[in-house]
Every structure is written in structure tokens, then in C-alpha cells.
Specification:
By secondary structure, the chain is α+β, with helices and mostly antiparallel strands. The protein has helices spanning about 15-20, 25-35, 70-75, 95-105, and strands at about 5-10, 45-50, 60-65, 85-90. About 25% of the residues lie in helices and about 15% in strands. The termini are far apart.
């Protein structure tokens, strides 16, 4: 856990990043990533109307969250101030989630990236055909072969 510290992730949804470059896919994947990894206490995921860097988009701002912040102020002073922040351009869903994990760790909000929860696999009841071992031992395998066997 973060001890109260959080990271704010703002995904641009302006006309170029949103409509032309489908930043909604990035936002949706970040949301799934936060849920899968149990990062809800450490991450504030939100939209930003525009960062004014349309030619470089889709754009995502990662910023250490500080109390109540005005989103307009965040857009205008994205990389200025006493908080840790990083603006990334030409984003993909995969790159956005990897950078989120990296910033959580490098900024000390999380000690290490939390791996996804393991998938649950139903365990068959004893005696069920699928409960047999996948590899069966061959007792003859370890015996030395005689002169004609080999």
C-alpha cells in the first residue's frame, strides 16, 4: 500500500487523441490493469480534455496526486511544481500499463509491481479421469538394458 500517497493518471480525450487515435482503449486498459492488480487505493484514473500536444498523442500524464487538485491546473502545469510527474506521448494500452507500474515503483508509491491474481483452475475430485497424472512413470525406463536391447 501507499500510506496515503497516490498517482494520478490523466488520459487525453481531445479530438485528436480521443477521436482519431482512440485513447479510450488506453483508458479502458488502464482501468482493467488497476482492477486486476488491486491498485485502486494507489491510482486515480481520469480523463483530461486536452494537453495541447495533439501531434504527439495519444498523451498520458502520470502525476503524484496531492490532495484536491483542479484538473485545469494539472493540464496547464503538467510538468511544473513540486510533485513527481511525467508526460508520455504516442501511447498504446500496453505501454501505458507498463509505465504505470514503473512510476508506482520508482516514485515509491508501491514497493514492487503487484502481479496479477492467479487464475483459478478447478481441481477434479479424486478418482475422476482428469485427476490422473499427466506423466506416468515407466518402471522399465530406469533398468539397464541387456546386450540384445540396445
Amino acid at each position: 500500500m501507499s500510506g496515503g500517497r497516490k498517482i494520478r493518471v490523466l488520459v487525453c480525450r481531445g479530438p485528436t487523441c480521443g477521436d482519431l487515435r482512440d485513447s479510450a482503449r488506453i483508458h479502458a486498459e488502464l482501468g482493467r490493469h488497476v482492477d486486476r492488480r488491486g491498485l485502486g487505493d494507489d491510482v486515480i484514473l481520469d480523463w483530461q480534455s486536452c494537453f495541447g500536444q495533439c501531434q504527439k498523442g495519444p498523451n498520458v500524464l502520470y502525476r503524484e496526486a496531492k490532495g484536491r487538485e483542479d484538473k485545469l491546473h494539472l493540464a496547464m502545469a503538467a510538468l511544473v511544481g513540486s510533485v513527481k510527474s511525467a508526460m508520455h506521448h504516442a501511447m498504446t494500452p500496453e505501454r501505458a500499463t507498463a509505465l504505470l507500474d514503473r512510476h508506482l515503483v520508482s516514485w515509491g508509491i508501491r514497493a514492487a509491481a503487484t502481479p496479477p491474481a492467479p487464475a483459478t483452475v478447478p481441481v477434479p475430485a479424486p478418482g475422476h479421469p482428469s485427476s490422473a497424472p499427466l506423466v506416468q512413470s515407466n518402471e522399465n525406463h530406469d533398468k539397464k538394458r541387456g546386450p540384445s536391447e540396445g
